[in-house]
Amino acid sequence: xxxxxxxxxxxxxxxxxxxxxxxxxxxxxxxxxxxxxxxxxxxxxxxxxxxxxxxxxxxxxxxxxxxxxxxxxxxxxxxxxxxxxxxxxxxxxxxxxxxxxxxxxxxxxxxxxxxxxxxxxxxxxxxxxxxxxxxxxxxxxxxxxxxxxxxxxxxxxxxxxxxxxxxxxxxxxxxxxxxxxxxxxxxxxxxxxxxxxxxxxxxxxxxxxxxxxxxxxxxxxxxxxxxxxxxxxxxxxxxxxxxxxxxxxxxxxxxxxxxxxxxxxxxxxxxxxxxxxxxxxxxxxxxxxxxxxxxxxxxxxxxxxxxxxxxxxxxxxxxxxxxxxxxxxx
Length: 330
Ligand SMILES: C[S@@+](CC[C@H](N)C(=O)[O-])C[C@H]1O[C@@H](n2cnc3c(N)ncnc32)[C@H](O)[C@@H]1O
Ligand SMILES: [Zn+2]
Fold this sequence. Notes:
Elements: E1 36-38, E2 41-43, H1 52-63, H2 75-83, H3 86-94, E3 100-104, H4 110-118, E4 123-128, H5 131-143, E5 149-153, E6 166-172, H6 181-190, E7 192-203, H7 209-221, H8 230-233, H9 239-250, H10 260-269, E8 272-278, H11 296-309, E9 318-325
Parallel strand pairs: 2-5, 3-4, 3-6, 4-5, 6-7
Antiparallel strand pairs: 1-2, 7-9, 8-9
Helix pairs in contact: 2-4
Protein backbone atom coordinates (compact mmCIF):
# COMPACT_ATOMS: atom_id res chain seq x y z
CA UNK A 1 0.00 0.00 0.00
CA UNK A 2 1.50 3.35 -1.03
CA UNK A 3 1.60 5.02 2.40
CA UNK A 4 3.67 7.83 0.94
CA UNK A 5 1.75 8.20 -2.31
CA UNK A 6 1.11 11.79 -1.29
CA UNK A 7 4.10 13.59 0.14
CA UNK A 8 2.37 16.49 1.85
CA UNK A 9 -1.10 16.88 3.32
CA UNK A 10 -3.49 17.82 0.57
CA UNK A 11 -7.06 17.17 -0.41
CA UNK A 12 -8.69 15.52 -2.14
CA UNK A 13 -7.15 12.10 -1.66
CA UNK A 14 -8.53 8.64 -2.16
CA UNK A 15 -9.66 7.08 1.15
CA UNK A 16 -8.92 3.57 -0.09
CA UNK A 17 -5.43 3.87 -1.62
CA UNK A 18 -4.53 7.42 -0.45
CA UNK A 19 -3.59 8.64 -3.88
CA UNK A 20 -3.83 12.39 -4.41
CA UNK A 21 -6.79 13.11 -6.70
CA UNK A 22 -7.45 15.84 -9.22
CA UNK A 23 -10.23 18.04 -7.89
CA UNK A 24 -12.57 17.21 -10.80
CA UNK A 25 -12.10 13.42 -10.89
CA UNK A 26 -14.88 10.95 -10.07
CA UNK A 27 -12.91 7.70 -10.05
CA UNK A 28 -9.58 6.97 -8.43
CA UNK A 29 -7.11 6.16 -11.23
CA UNK A 30 -5.30 3.63 -9.00
CA UNK A 31 -7.92 1.64 -7.07
CA UNK A 32 -10.92 2.65 -9.25
CA UNK A 33 -13.09 3.71 -6.31
CA UNK A 34 -15.97 5.66 -7.86
CA UNK A 35 -17.65 8.64 -6.21
CA UNK A 36 -19.58 11.77 -6.94
CA UNK A 37 -18.27 15.05 -5.61
CA UNK A 38 -20.42 16.67 -2.92
CA UNK A 39 -18.59 19.94 -2.31
CA UNK A 40 -15.32 18.77 -0.82
CA UNK A 41 -16.81 15.39 0.15
CA UNK A 42 -16.29 12.23 -1.89
CA UNK A 43 -19.73 10.63 -2.00
CA UNK A 44 -19.36 6.89 -2.54
CA UNK A 45 -23.07 6.19 -1.89
CA UNK A 46 -24.44 8.82 -4.27
CA UNK A 47 -28.04 8.01 -5.17
CA UNK A 48 -27.73 4.29 -4.44
CA UNK A 49 -30.59 2.94 -2.30
CA UNK A 50 -29.64 2.21 1.31
CA UNK A 51 -30.74 -0.52 3.68
CA UNK A 52 -33.96 0.68 5.39
CA UNK A 53 -32.55 1.09 8.91
CA UNK A 54 -29.42 2.86 7.63
CA UNK A 55 -31.70 5.12 5.59
CA UNK A 56 -33.79 5.89 8.71
CA UNK A 57 -30.63 6.73 10.64
CA UNK A 58 -29.43 9.01 7.84
CA UNK A 59 -32.81 10.79 7.79
CA UNK A 60 -32.60 11.20 11.55
CA UNK A 61 -29.13 12.83 11.35
CA UNK A 62 -30.29 14.95 8.42
CA UNK A 63 -32.74 16.57 10.85
CA UNK A 64 -30.23 16.66 13.70
CA UNK A 65 -26.63 16.53 12.48
CA UNK A 66 -24.45 15.49 15.40
CA UNK A 67 -22.71 17.03 17.26
CA UNK A 68 -23.23 20.24 15.20
CA UNK A 69 -21.33 23.53 15.23
CA UNK A 70 -22.12 26.74 17.09
CA UNK A 71 -22.56 29.78 14.78
CA UNK A 72 -19.21 31.42 15.69
CA UNK A 73 -17.10 28.25 15.52
CA UNK A 74 -13.86 28.51 13.61
CA UNK A 75 -10.49 26.76 13.64
CA UNK A 76 -9.23 28.70 16.65
CA UNK A 77 -12.34 28.09 18.80
CA UNK A 78 -12.44 24.39 17.91
CA UNK A 79 -8.76 23.96 18.69
CA UNK A 80 -9.16 25.83 21.96
CA UNK A 81 -12.21 23.80 23.00
CA UNK A 82 -10.41 20.55 22.13
CA UNK A 83 -7.37 21.58 24.17
CA UNK A 84 -9.63 22.29 27.14
CA UNK A 85 -11.37 18.91 26.84
CA UNK A 86 -9.07 16.48 28.69
CA UNK A 87 -9.97 13.40 26.63
CA UNK A 88 -9.44 15.18 23.28
CA UNK A 89 -6.25 16.85 24.43
CA UNK A 90 -4.81 13.53 25.61
CA UNK A 91 -5.99 11.73 22.48
CA UNK A 92 -4.15 14.31 20.38
CA UNK A 93 -1.01 13.93 22.49
CA UNK A 94 -1.18 10.12 22.09
CA UNK A 95 -1.42 10.16 18.26
CA UNK A 96 1.81 10.62 16.27
CA UNK A 97 2.07 14.02 14.58
CA UNK A 98 2.25 12.44 11.12
CA UNK A 99 -0.17 9.50 11.59
CA UNK A 100 -2.90 8.43 9.22
CA UNK A 101 -6.15 8.40 11.23
CA UNK A 102 -9.49 6.96 10.17
CA UNK A 103 -12.65 8.23 11.89
CA UNK A 104 -15.57 5.91 11.12
CA UNK A 105 -18.91 7.67 11.63
CA UNK A 106 -17.34 11.11 12.02
CA UNK A 107 -20.69 12.97 11.95
CA UNK A 108 -20.10 16.71 11.61
CA UNK A 109 -16.40 15.95 12.18
CA UNK A 110 -15.47 18.04 15.22
CA UNK A 111 -13.16 15.31 16.48
CA UNK A 112 -11.61 14.72 13.05
CA UNK A 113 -11.19 18.48 12.49
CA UNK A 114 -9.61 18.92 15.90
CA UNK A 115 -7.08 16.16 15.24
CA UNK A 116 -6.35 17.62 11.81
CA UNK A 117 -5.85 21.15 13.16
CA UNK A 118 -3.78 19.95 16.11
CA UNK A 119 -1.54 17.85 13.84
CA UNK A 120 -1.19 19.56 10.45
CA UNK A 121 1.09 16.75 9.22
CA UNK A 122 -1.44 14.04 9.99
CA UNK A 123 -3.82 12.78 7.35
CA UNK A 124 -7.32 12.27 8.68
CA UNK A 125 -10.10 10.48 6.83
CA UNK A 126 -13.60 11.05 8.19
CA UNK A 127 -16.28 8.71 6.89
CA UNK A 128 -19.99 9.03 7.58
CA UNK A 129 -23.21 7.90 5.96
CA UNK A 130 -25.09 11.17 6.39
CA UNK A 131 -24.88 13.68 3.57
CA UNK A 132 -26.18 16.58 5.68
CA UNK A 133 -23.70 16.00 8.55
CA UNK A 134 -20.85 15.87 6.05
CA UNK A 135 -22.02 19.08 4.40
CA UNK A 136 -21.75 20.79 7.80
CA UNK A 137 -18.34 19.16 8.26
CA UNK A 138 -17.18 20.33 4.83
CA UNK A 139 -18.35 23.91 5.41
CA UNK A 140 -16.37 23.97 8.63
CA UNK A 141 -13.37 22.33 6.98
CA UNK A 142 -13.30 25.10 4.38
CA UNK A 143 -13.90 27.87 6.91
CA UNK A 144 -11.08 26.59 9.11
CA UNK A 145 -8.85 26.00 6.05
CA UNK A 146 -8.16 22.41 6.99
CA UNK A 147 -6.30 20.70 4.15
CA UNK A 148 -5.41 17.36 5.77
CA UNK A 149 -8.93 16.04 6.37
CA UNK A 150 -10.68 14.05 3.64
CA UNK A 151 -14.42 13.64 4.14
CA UNK A 152 -16.16 10.65 2.59
CA UNK A 153 -19.81 9.61 2.45
CA UNK A 154 -19.99 5.84 2.73
CA UNK A 155 -21.70 3.16 4.77
CA UNK A 156 -19.93 1.64 7.74
CA UNK A 157 -20.60 -1.82 6.34
CA UNK A 158 -18.88 -0.98 3.07
CA UNK A 159 -16.01 1.17 4.23
CA UNK A 160 -13.84 2.40 1.36
CA UNK A 161 -10.72 2.23 3.51
CA UNK A 162 -7.89 -0.23 3.34
CA UNK A 163 -8.01 -3.28 5.62
CA UNK A 164 -5.15 -3.31 8.17
CA UNK A 165 -4.17 0.12 6.85
CA UNK A 166 -4.37 2.62 9.72
CA UNK A 167 -2.26 3.04 12.86
CA UNK A 168 -5.22 4.71 14.55
CA UNK A 169 -8.91 4.04 13.91
CA UNK A 170 -11.57 5.92 15.85
CA UNK A 171 -15.27 5.23 15.96
CA UNK A 172 -17.12 7.11 18.66
CA UNK A 173 -20.85 6.84 19.21
CA UNK A 174 -21.57 4.93 16.00
CA UNK A 175 -21.64 1.12 16.23
CA UNK A 176 -24.62 1.15 18.63
CA UNK A 177 -26.63 3.05 16.02
CA UNK A 178 -26.24 0.34 13.37
CA UNK A 179 -28.40 -2.76 12.78
CA UNK A 180 -25.55 -5.09 13.80
CA UNK A 181 -23.12 -3.60 16.36
CA UNK A 182 -20.86 -6.69 16.46
CA UNK A 183 -20.43 -6.62 12.70
CA UNK A 184 -19.90 -2.87 12.85
CA UNK A 185 -17.11 -3.37 15.41
CA UNK A 186 -15.58 -5.93 13.07
CA UNK A 187 -15.70 -3.46 10.15
CA UNK A 188 -13.84 -0.72 11.99
CA UNK A 189 -11.45 -3.13 13.74
CA UNK A 190 -10.47 -4.60 10.37
CA UNK A 191 -9.04 -1.22 9.27
CA UNK A 192 -6.52 -1.11 12.14
CA UNK A 193 -2.94 -1.92 11.12
CA UNK A 194 -1.10 -4.67 13.02
CA UNK A 195 0.14 -3.10 16.25
CA UNK A 196 -2.26 -0.18 15.75
CA UNK A 197 -4.89 1.29 18.03
CA UNK A 198 -8.68 1.20 18.01
CA UNK A 199 -10.59 3.89 19.91
CA UNK A 200 -14.15 2.61 20.15
CA UNK A 201 -16.93 4.57 21.88
CA UNK A 202 -20.26 2.87 22.57
CA UNK A 203 -23.22 2.98 24.96
CA UNK A 204 -22.29 0.66 27.78
CA UNK A 205 -25.19 -1.20 29.41
CA UNK A 206 -24.44 -0.22 33.02
CA UNK A 207 -23.16 3.25 32.13
CA UNK A 208 -26.38 3.93 30.22
CA UNK A 209 -28.73 2.45 32.83
CA UNK A 210 -29.56 5.76 34.49
CA UNK A 211 -30.25 7.38 31.12
CA UNK A 212 -32.62 4.54 30.19
CA UNK A 213 -34.56 5.17 33.42
CA UNK A 214 -34.53 8.94 32.83
CA UNK A 215 -35.79 8.45 29.28
CA UNK A 216 -38.53 6.06 30.44
CA UNK A 217 -39.66 8.58 33.11
CA UNK A 218 -39.68 11.29 30.46
CA UNK A 219 -41.97 9.17 28.30
CA UNK A 220 -44.31 8.66 31.25
CA UNK A 221 -44.65 12.38 31.94
CA UNK A 222 -44.66 13.32 28.24
CA UNK A 223 -41.47 15.45 28.20
CA UNK A 224 -37.77 15.21 28.97
CA UNK A 225 -37.01 15.77 32.64
CA UNK A 226 -34.37 18.48 32.34
CA UNK A 227 -33.20 18.52 35.95
CA UNK A 228 -32.21 14.85 35.66
CA UNK A 229 -30.03 15.48 32.60
CA UNK A 230 -26.69 17.30 33.08
CA UNK A 231 -26.64 18.49 29.46
CA UNK A 232 -30.17 19.93 29.62
CA UNK A 233 -29.29 21.53 32.98
CA UNK A 234 -26.48 23.56 31.36
CA UNK A 235 -27.25 27.26 31.04
CA UNK A 236 -24.48 28.01 28.55
CA UNK A 237 -25.86 25.71 25.80
CA UNK A 238 -28.02 27.29 23.11
CA UNK A 239 -31.49 26.00 22.26
CA UNK A 240 -30.37 24.36 19.00
CA UNK A 241 -27.63 22.37 20.74
CA UNK A 242 -30.20 21.20 23.32
CA UNK A 243 -32.66 20.23 20.60
CA UNK A 244 -29.99 18.12 18.90
CA UNK A 245 -29.10 16.50 22.24
CA UNK A 246 -32.76 15.69 22.98
CA UNK A 247 -33.18 14.14 19.54
CA UNK A 248 -29.97 12.13 19.85
CA UNK A 249 -30.60 10.90 23.37
CA UNK A 250 -34.38 10.58 23.58
CA UNK A 251 -35.68 10.04 20.03
CA UNK A 252 -33.10 8.04 18.15
CA UNK A 253 -34.65 5.46 15.79
CA UNK A 254 -31.93 2.82 16.31
CA UNK A 255 -30.00 2.32 19.50
CA UNK A 256 -28.33 -0.67 21.16
CA UNK A 257 -26.57 -0.87 24.48
CA UNK A 258 -23.57 -3.16 24.79
CA UNK A 259 -22.04 -4.73 27.92
CA UNK A 260 -18.32 -4.06 28.23
CA UNK A 261 -17.41 -7.76 28.72
CA UNK A 262 -19.13 -8.56 25.42
CA UNK A 263 -17.26 -5.81 23.55
CA UNK A 264 -13.98 -6.99 25.04
CA UNK A 265 -14.64 -10.54 23.96
CA UNK A 266 -15.48 -9.41 20.39
CA UNK A 267 -12.26 -7.39 20.29
CA UNK A 268 -10.32 -10.29 21.73
CA UNK A 269 -11.64 -12.60 19.03
CA UNK A 270 -10.44 -10.05 16.44
CA UNK A 271 -6.89 -10.11 17.81
CA UNK A 272 -6.94 -7.06 20.07
CA UNK A 273 -5.41 -6.57 23.50
CA UNK A 274 -6.88 -4.44 26.25
CA UNK A 275 -5.28 -1.01 26.74
CA UNK A 276 -7.82 0.89 28.89
CA UNK A 277 -11.28 2.38 29.12
CA UNK A 278 -12.23 6.04 29.40
CA UNK A 279 -13.64 6.83 31.92
CA UNK A 280 -11.60 6.88 34.04
CA UNK A 281 -9.25 9.44 32.57
CA UNK A 282 -5.95 9.89 34.39
CA UNK A 283 -4.69 13.33 33.42
CA UNK A 284 -1.38 13.54 31.60
CA UNK A 285 -1.18 9.87 30.60
CA UNK A 286 -0.52 8.42 27.16
CA UNK A 287 -3.91 6.94 26.31
CA UNK A 288 -2.31 4.25 24.15
CA UNK A 289 -0.11 2.91 26.93
CA UNK A 290 -1.49 -0.38 28.25
CA UNK A 291 -2.92 -0.55 31.75
CA UNK A 292 -3.20 -3.84 33.66
CA UNK A 293 -6.18 -5.89 32.44
CA UNK A 294 -9.14 -5.89 34.84
CA UNK A 295 -10.14 -9.08 36.60
CA UNK A 296 -13.81 -10.01 36.95
CA UNK A 297 -14.43 -8.12 40.19
CA UNK A 298 -12.50 -5.01 39.10
CA UNK A 299 -14.48 -4.98 35.84
CA UNK A 300 -17.71 -5.33 37.79
CA UNK A 301 -16.70 -2.50 40.15
CA UNK A 302 -15.86 -0.23 37.23
CA UNK A 303 -19.21 -0.83 35.57
CA UNK A 304 -21.11 -0.23 38.84
CA UNK A 305 -19.12 3.00 39.18
CA UNK A 306 -20.38 4.10 35.76
CA UNK A 307 -23.93 3.21 36.78
CA UNK A 308 -23.68 5.34 39.95
CA UNK A 309 -22.20 8.26 38.05
CA UNK A 310 -25.02 8.11 35.49
CA UNK A 311 -26.97 11.05 36.89
CA UNK A 312 -24.07 13.42 36.29
CA UNK A 313 -22.54 11.81 33.22
CA UNK A 314 -22.53 14.35 30.35
CA UNK A 315 -21.92 11.50 27.90
CA UNK A 316 -24.96 9.48 29.08
CA UNK A 317 -23.11 6.19 29.35
CA UNK A 318 -20.79 6.49 26.35
CA UNK A 319 -17.70 4.49 27.24
CA UNK A 320 -14.49 4.47 25.21
CA UNK A 321 -12.51 1.27 24.93
CA UNK A 322 -8.95 1.59 23.68
CA UNK A 323 -7.41 -1.62 22.37
CA UNK A 324 -4.26 -2.52 20.48
CA UNK A 325 -4.21 -4.98 17.58
CA UNK A 326 -1.68 -7.76 17.85
CA UNK A 327 1.41 -7.03 15.80
CA UNK A 328 1.46 -10.48 14.19
CA UNK A 329 -1.16 -11.91 11.81
CA UNK A 330 -4.59 -11.87 13.49
C1 LIG B 1 -23.81 10.13 17.41
S1 LIG B 1 -23.08 10.48 15.87
C2 LIG B 1 -21.36 10.43 16.31
C3 LIG B 1 -20.55 11.45 15.58
C4 LIG B 1 -19.05 11.50 15.95
N1 LIG B 1 -18.41 10.22 15.84
C5 LIG B 1 -18.84 12.06 17.33
O1 LIG B 1 -18.37 11.33 18.20
O2 LIG B 1 -19.13 13.24 17.54
C6 LIG B 1 -23.27 8.94 14.97
C7 LIG B 1 -22.86 9.05 13.50
O3 LIG B 1 -22.79 7.72 12.97
C8 LIG B 1 -23.22 7.77 11.62
N2 LIG B 1 -23.68 6.45 11.20
C9 LIG B 1 -24.62 5.68 11.78
N3 LIG B 1 -24.80 4.54 11.07
C10 LIG B 1 -23.94 4.60 10.03
C11 LIG B 1 -23.65 3.72 8.93
N4 LIG B 1 -24.27 2.55 8.78
N5 LIG B 1 -22.72 4.10 8.03
C12 LIG B 1 -22.06 5.28 8.18
N6 LIG B 1 -22.29 6.16 9.20
C13 LIG B 1 -23.22 5.82 10.10
C14 LIG B 1 -24.34 8.78 11.63
O4 LIG B 1 -24.58 9.33 10.35
C15 LIG B 1 -23.83 9.81 12.64
O5 LIG B 1 -23.20 10.90 12.02
ZN1 LIG C 1 -7.81 4.86 -4.75
